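Hi! If you just cloned this repository, the fastest way to understand the data is to look at a raw example. We've pasted two of them here, unedited. The first protein comes first, obviously.
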Amino acid sequence: MVSINYPHIINVKVISNAKKEEIILEDNSHLKVKLSIVPEKGKANKRLIELLSEYFNVSKSRLRIVSGEFNKNKIISIDS
C-alpha cells in the first residue's frame, strides 16, 4: 500500500498476459503493472483498476482511466 495526496495522476505501463501479476513502482508518478489477463473486451482495464484499488487502498470508483484506454500506456486519475 502506498500513501498519496489526492487528486493524483499516475502514468501506468501495462504488460498483459504476464505469468505473474505485480505492480512495480518506477518513481512517484510511474508504475509498471503486469497483468495475467489478455487485453480483450476491457478485461485488462477492469483488472488494472482492481489491482490499483488494492494497491492504493481506495475504492474502484475513485480510479479512472483518463487516457490510453486502448493502449498499454495509460494515465490514471485517483480522485478524493
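Ok, and the second one:
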Amino acid sequence: MISGMRGIVSGKARRYKQGGFDLDLAYITEQVIAMSYPFEGRREYYRNPLSSVKRLLDGQHKGHYKLFNLCSERQYEASKFGVEVACFPFEDHQAPPLPLVAQFCLEVAAWLGKDPQNVAVVHCKAGKGRTGTMICSYLVHAGICKTADEALDLYAAKRTTDGNGVTNPSQRRYVQYYADLRKEGPVVPKRLQLRRVTVTGLPPSDTNDLIVGVWSRPPGAGWKSHLMCLAAARPQSHQPSSQQVADAKIAASRSSQASLHDHKQQLLLANNTAVLDCDRIAPAEQWLLEGDVKVEIFQSEATPKHSLAWTWFSTIFAPTQQTLSVKDLDHSKSLSAGSLTPCMYRVWTKWLKMARSVQEDLQLKIELTEFNPG
C-alpha cells in the first residue's frame, strides 16, 4: 500500500526498482542521478524515505557520492548521509539565477572529475523541474549534449515515463540561456528599462480584476528576488491591501534591503486590455532592470502563491520587445480545491474560472529599452 502511495505521488517520474528498492530516483548518466527529496517522518510514507536513499547510495556508491540540494524551502544536515551536501537553492516552479547555474555546473564537474567512480545526486522537492533545469545545464556544460534541446530530451527520456521532463517554459528558457553562454563565452551584463507590460486575451470580468507584479533579481543578489511594483486594474478602493503586499514580499523571499516602489499603481484598461505604463507612473530610473526579471499576473483577491501566470527572463538575452502566448508562460497546474481551507475556497473558484481562460487567448507583451545613462 505504501509503495502504491509513493507511485501515485511521483506520477510519471521513473522509479528505481532494483534490489528490493522502490524509490523516486533515476540515473540520467552513469555519474548523474536525479531524485526527489529524501524525507523523514510522516512524509517518508509517500515520498523518498531518507533511510532507504542512504542505504541505496551507500550500497552502490559508498564514499563516492555527493548530494546537491536545490530546495530553498528545506534542508537537512549532511550528517544524515555522512557525505558532503552542496546547496544551490532557488524557488519551486521558478527559474534559477544564471550565476547559480554556472556555479552548480562547475562544482558538479569538479566533483565528478576527481574520480571516475564519483556520482552527483541532484534533487529538489519532486526531483523534476528544478532538478532537470540544473542537470540539463550540466549536460551542456560537460559536452555530454551539444544543445539545450538535446539535453532536455535526454533528461525527459531518462527521468520520466511520458517524456515530460522540464515542462516549465522559463526553466527551459534558462537551460537555453546557459547553452548560449557556453557557446558565446563571457558577456557584458545589460541594463534595461521596463517601458510597458500589456495583458490581453482575458474576459472583461477577469481583466478588471487583474494585478500585475514585476520582480527583480539583480546580479549578486543570490536566489532571492524583490518586488518592484504591484499594479492593480481596479479602482483605488480595490488596490492591493497591505496584507497582499506582505504576502507578495514573503512569496518572493525578499531581502530586508528590498524596496517596493509603489504598490498602489493603476493599470490602464481598454478593450479587455490591461497596461502597466511605466513611463506614466514613475521616473524611468525606478524601472532599471539588470539580471533576472519576473513578470506575474494574478487576481486581486488571490495571493501571489496562486498567481495566474508568470514568466522569467534575463536582461542579458531579452529582446526589447517580446510577446508571450500561453505556451511561453508558466502557470500552476497543481492547485486543487482539496488543497485549500474553506475560507480560501471562494478565492479558488474565482481563480479556477480565470485559470481556464489561460488555456486560450492570454498574451503578455513586455516592452523594454536599453538603458542609456548619458
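That's it. A detail worth noticing about the second one: The domain at 191-370 is CATH 2.60.40.1110 (Immunoglobulin-like).
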